[in-house]
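tokens incoming
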């Protein structure tokens, strides 16, 4: 079996464990039941045609990039996630599967990170650009499950401005000085500071 060969070469066949590896790219067509992934750093990673269940243990692993799980995979909602760190997008994917062991709390830092991510969609060199609303919402929601609420809040509190164009709606930064200061120096002021405070109050657990 392909998995057994991989365990023999880069893992531990006796304990059925892969550990202390850096993985990036595609993990394809593997039966990962009764397998432990431990202390693994994942870059951008995609699982396709893989089978996992509650005997698949993901222990103290760091998901640093994007995580993709193809519809051909089976059992991701059952895997055992224990410790480790998750990129915002990876957290969102695991949340969508309602994986046991996942800390689902939204923290103030998660909210601030989401605001940063959303506002960076408007950066262009040293300036700020107008962006299509559907694109900003889509990318922010892909990274953060509550991304829609971040965009709504930034519009509500006057940081972003929404306006109609022939193809739908665009967004532009209304409070440019505040956004410049935040993106360049991580300093919150003005309407942006108020918006982040309100969003933290609304979204953080």
């Amino acid at each position: 079996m392909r998995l057994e060969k991989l365990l023999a070469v880069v893992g531990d066949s006796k304990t059925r464990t892969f550990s202390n590896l850096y993985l990036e790219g595609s993990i394809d067509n593997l039966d990962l039941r009764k397998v432990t992934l431990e202390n693994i750093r994942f870059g951008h990673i995609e699982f396709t045609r893989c089978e996992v269940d509650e005997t698949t243990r993901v222990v103290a692993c760091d998901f640093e990039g994007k995580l993709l799980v193809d519809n051909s995979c089976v059992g991701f909602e059952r895997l055992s996630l224990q410790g480790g760190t998750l990129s915002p997008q990876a957290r969102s994917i695991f949340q969508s599967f309602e994986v046991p062991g996942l800390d689902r709390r939204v923290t103030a830092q998660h909210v601030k990170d989401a605001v940063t991510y959303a506002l960076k969609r408007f950066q262009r060199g040293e300036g700020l650009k107008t962006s299509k609303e559907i694109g900003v919402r889509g990318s922010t929601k892909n990274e953060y499950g509550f991304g829609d609420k971040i965009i709504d809040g930034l519009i509500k509190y006057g940081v972003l401005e929404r306006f109609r164009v022939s193809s739908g709606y665009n967004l532009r930064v209304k409070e440019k000085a505040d956004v410049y200061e935040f993106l360049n120096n991580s300093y919150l002021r003005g309407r942006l500071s108020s918006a982040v405070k309100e969003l933290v109050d609304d979204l953080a657990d």
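note: Residues 2-97 form one domain.
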